[in-house]
Prior knowledge:
Protein name: Outer membrane protein assembly factor BamE domain-containing protein
Strand order of the largest sheet: 1-2-3-4
Strand content: 25-35%
Shape: globular
Helix content: 25-40%
Oligomer: single chain
Keywords: Membrane, Signal
Signal peptide: 1-18
Largest sheet: 4 strands, antiparallel
Structural class: alpha+beta
Domain Outer membrane protein assembly factor BamE: 107-172
Low-confidence stretches: none
Amino acid sequence: MSLKLPIAAMLAACIALTACDDQQSERAVQKIKEFFNAVKPDALLLKNMTPGVTTEAQIREQMGKPETERTYTDGSKRFEYPRGPQGLNTYMVDIDRDGKLQSITQVLTAANFGKIRIGMSEDEVRRLLGKPGEIAVFPLKPETVWSWKWREGGVTEEGIFNVHFDQNRKVYTTSRSDVVRGR
Length: 183
C-alpha cells in the first residue's frame, strides 16, 4: 500500500487544524487518531498487549475507541474491534475487573461460527461474532442476513459466513458464500 494517501490525509488535516479553535482542533486530532487506528495493521494494533499488565487506558490509546463496549456484573469488560469495512478479523478484548487486559480473541473463526445455534437472538450473535460486515434485509421472505468475511483457508482463502434471522429476529439457519471479485 502506498504511503501517499495517508501522508496526503495527514497534510490536509494539519492544514485544516491551523484554522480551528482549540476545541475543533481536539476533535480533528481525535478523528485523525480514529482513522489511523482503523487502518493500522493488526501487528501494530496488537503490539505489546500483555495480559495482566496492559491497562484499559493503554488499550484505548493503542486500539482506539471500540465499536461496542460491554460491562458485566462482575466489573469486567469486553471491547469489540472489527477491522475495516468487511475486514477479515474482529477482535474481542476482555478486561478484568481491575482494568487489566485479560485476553484478545480473533472471533471470526470456524470454531466460533460453529457456536451459532437456531433460536439465538441478534444480540447473542453480535456478542459472539461482533459487528457484521454487511446486513441484507429481505422483507418479502421475511428474513435478515448478517454476513462476515473471514479467512477460511482452502482454495479461495476468503469466504463469507452468513447468519439468517427470521421475522422474530432469531437465527433459523446459517450459510456460506464465496467472495465475489471483479464486479
